[in-house]
Amino acid sequence: MSIAEGNNDPVRTGRIFITGAAGFIGFHLARLLLEEGYAVHGYDGMTDYYDVSLKRGRHGHLEQYPHYSSTTAMLEDHETLMEAARLFRPDAIVHLAAQAGVRYSLENPRVYIDSNIVGTFNVLEASRELAIPHLLMASTSSIYGANEKMPFAELDKADEQLTIYAATKKANESMAHSYAHLWNIPTTMFRFFTVYGSWGRPDLASFKFVDAILAGKPIDIYNNGDMYRDFTFVGDLVRGIRLLIDTPPERPAGKDDIAPGDSLSHVAPFRIVNIGNSDKVRLLDFVEAIEVNLGVEAVRNYLPMQKGDVPATWADSSLLERLTGFRPNTSIMDGIAEFVAWHRGYYGH
Ligand SMILES: NC(=O)c1ccc[n+]([C@@H]2O[C@H](COP(=O)([O-])OP(=O)(O)OC[C@H]3O[C@@H](n4cnc5c(N)ncnc54)[C@H](O)[C@@H]3O)[C@@H](O)[C@H]2O)c1
User: Fold this and answer.
1) Is the pTM of this model over 0.85?
2) What per-residue confidence (pLDDT) applies to 279?
């Protein structure tokens, strides 16, 4: 564990505590906020789920900003988490640290309980004790599980999770709702949909495809290619988060106080918001965009559906648009071009 001092001068826009700041999404969010003049404190345990040097690279980049400070520790270490948050005095906490990954959760379920259940509980406790004005936390499109009604909307019943990863995220939503209700913590839960872009996660399909194609190795395409994903460009995603930071939910006076289609709880300042591209893209079209950008054709290895996987995800992002005026709009071709350019630069090929 280490706590690095940052410049603690007051800044124009506020102080944001980000868990998982050395992660893919946390890094992009921290960088966006720092560019806008926020003070950011990053809290990350630098877990070895994937290449730690990539996390160090992101972290090193953030450390160049004078208003960035950080703590390297696990969420499960509740005393360190509390101390870091108390010292920083955040206006908002954005909780992104988690054990992610659908497939890894089949072989390593326990780490999901430790990071996602115990870790999130500690974030909730810190938020309660410090009376945080707005807590924002990551959930996932995976919680829609076996749902067949598309696009997935926040008010759809989502009770049929297919993996322990999705189950822990669903549990996080319930835990956060109870804390919002009991302790009046304004809380926004995001449900993210297959995020891609520069500084991405090596375990995600976009990254694995680029690696394999460049190495001349076959890429695994599940369900024989009959797969659809609402691919969301990371730049759009963090812009949505940034706008939601300024939109804390307020406890409604009653059910009549809630607009149609709003997921706001009728008993708590708690809301769930999808952040997706609102477009169901065929996996094979995504692969084609990568091939065009790399100028290399992929060797395709068609495989059956994987256990715990779903054939399609598709977000209804109209609530995000109504709350923030923003709708993710980066095309697959533009988003992949950004990712491929970064990959080429970072790995020097
Ligand atoms: N990337 C996606 O497509 C996607 C989709 C849906 C939901 N999400 C959610 O978004 C969030 C961010 O995902 P990401 O893609 O940036 O993942 P990531 O793995 O790149 O980032 C997570 C970070 O959290 C840290 N971390 C993990 N467990 C920790 C613990 N117990 N204590 C302290 N730090 C810990 C890791 O070191 C990592 O840097 C996660 O909650 C994930 O479940 C991501």
Assistant:
1) yes
2) 87
